[in-house]
Amino acid sequence: xxxxxxxxxxxxxxxxxxxxxxxxxxxxxxxxxxxxxxxxxxxxxxxxxxxxxxxxxxxxxxxxxxxxxxxxxxxxxxxxxxxxxxxxxxxxxxxxxxxxxxxxxxxxxxxxxxxxxxxxxxxxxxxxxxxxxxxxxxxxxxxxxxxxxxx
Length: 151
Prior knowledge:
This protein is α+β, with helices and mostly antiparallel strands. It has three helices and three strands; from the N terminus they run H-H-H-E-E-E. The protein has a three-stranded antiparallel sheet with strand order 1-2-3, covered by helices on one side.
C-alpha cells in the first residue's frame, strides 16, 4: 500500500541562527575604534617622518657650510664667515659674504623659519649651527643642530 503524498510543513527552529542586531553593532564599534587608532598611528608616523627629514636636511646643510669653510681656510680662521643667529646677511662683494648669503638663503628655502650661525676661532676650530621651527612635527618651536670640527 502506498501512502498518500502528504505535505509536511517546515518545523519551527528551536535554536536561533545568525547574529542579532546588538552583536553586529558591537562588532562595528570595535572595528571603528581599531580604525581610529590606526589613523592616529599613521598621523604620528607622518609627523615623525617630516621631522626626521628636516633634521637630515639640517645636518646636510651644516656639513655643506663646514666644507665651504675648509675650502677657504684662510678667510675662515680670520673670522670672515662668522655670523650669529638673527644677524643680518652681509653685503655682497667678497667670496665669504657670497658664501654666507648663499648658505643662509638655502637654509631658508629648505627649512621652515631657518637661520644659521658660524663661529671660527683663529686656530681653525669651527662650529656651525642650524636652527629651524619644528613645531609642526610636535617638537619645540626652535630646534637646532650644531656641528663642530677643526678645519
